[in-house]
Amino acid sequence: MNRYSKQTRLLVAIDCIIFGFDGNEMKILLVQRGMVPEKGKWSLMGGFVQPDESLEEAAARTLNELTGLGNVYMEQLHTFGMPERDPIERTVSVTYFALLDLAKYKVQLSSEFQAEWFPLKKFPRLIFDHSEMVQAARDRLKYKASLHPILFELLPEKFTIPQLQSLFEDVYQASFDKRNFNRKIISTGLLIKQSEKDRINSRKGAFFFKLDKKTYRENFHSILRMIPNPNDSI
Amino acid sequence: MNRYSKQTRLLVAIDCIIFGFDGNEMKILLVQRGMVPEKGKWSLMGGFVQPDESLEEAAARTLNELTGLGNVYMEQLHTFGMPERDPIERTVSVTYFALLDLAKYKVQLSSEFQAEWFPLKKFPRLIFDHSEMVQAARDRLKYKASLHPILFELLPEKFTIPQLQSLFEDVYQASFDKRNFNRKIISTGLLIKQSEKDRINSRKGAFFFKLDKKTYRENFHSILRMIPNPNDSI
After folding, report:
1. Cα→Cα distances A148→A22, A142, A216, Å
2. Which residues contact B40 (CB under 8 A, 6 or more apart)?
3. Contacts of B83 in chain A (CB under 8 A)
4. B151 and B145 Cβ atoms separated by less than 8 Å
5. What pLDDT, in 10s, does the model give residues B165-179?
6. Of the candidates A4, A12, A231, which has its C-beta nearest B148's C-beta?
7. pLDDT digits (tens, 9 = 90+) for A66-104
8. Interhelix angle A178-187/A161-172, nearest 10 degrees
9. B198 and B144 in contact (C-beta within 8 Å)?
10. Cβ–Cβ of B55/A79 closer than 8 Å?
11. In chain B, what residues touch A35 (CB-CB under 8 Å)?
């Protein structure tokens, strides 16, 4: 008999927050929950951790079972453990999140799954504390984006400034003045103007730009001046 | 009968990583473990989550029971869940960390507890995966320090550049050339030189500086140029 045997064991679940950028807006992947309580309601992709799998393995398996997606690199986010968060039984949930380039992943979502992409600007009400999980993932994304080139990794090789502005606005949950955004992003010296214009999304057309990757890697801090102070959301 | 009832419940623990800065070096708080396995070995402050408490409450209670420290703001770090991490029984551990100004907290550590501060440069071998937890906390600290004024919050109102260099070296696990560090930190424009010198730690003496808090808040990015690229450690 040791101190372990007197303890209460708890259900441990994982929930996955999957964001995607489709070139124009940020999206979130949701599923219709397949079990009671709240059956049929929209939810993050979640499931229980099995006795012999690590948390990462549980996250990968759950995402695959519910959406068909495989080989998605997910990062652990935060563990939610309020005693009443699941009305059936206390469940501690470890969350994982990923940010996908939808151009690469869209094909894998088959109709046999009840999963669907929604705009991050407007998605259905979620069960339990799942909205709080989504907000935590948005906050982490803002934070990471201020130190990593992740936002640029989502853009196609050639992109327009309106496209970049839309991505920044979705990530920072802010709206930027068009002329100011234009001026500031040009002044970072990180973009290389192309001679071609995108004429699909506006009649006047918008020049394409490429990221100067070398300069970006050496001087990624200059992008910080573009964004709201990340301290505000932590 | 629902899908919940078929699941395996797991032990859920919390472990606390407490760093402190005493004006000269970074320290870590450890306890001698009071139960088998590994009884008597050095360990982080840990315990099991009880049925009715949140994870934050479990962390605060555990820290208080093992060290006497109260009112410590701890931040959730990462959840460790490898099936074999605890040899007695699978235990998922949610870690919390804090960075204390030791000048404020030292008094509370009474001798009735088996807790002790060790230099972060050299501390005893820890049980289980606790060294990995400490490394995760160090990485988070580096990351946060690049976006937040937390390092300056640890320094006394007046500090010397050697003191600041020692703090940076402990946090970034790097050693900086003294003259370069001096030049770079002065060039940030964030420090205000005082007329007094600290003559305790060297015969020649080192001028005291104060942080220009207003400039720091407006221009905290300039400190980024001082530090190794945080991408490297993520």
Report:
1. 20, 10, 10
2. B32, B33
3. 51-54
4. yes
5. 888 888 888 888 899
6. A231
7. 988 888 889 999 999 999 999 999 999 999 999 888 877
8. 100
9. no
10. yes
11. 2-3
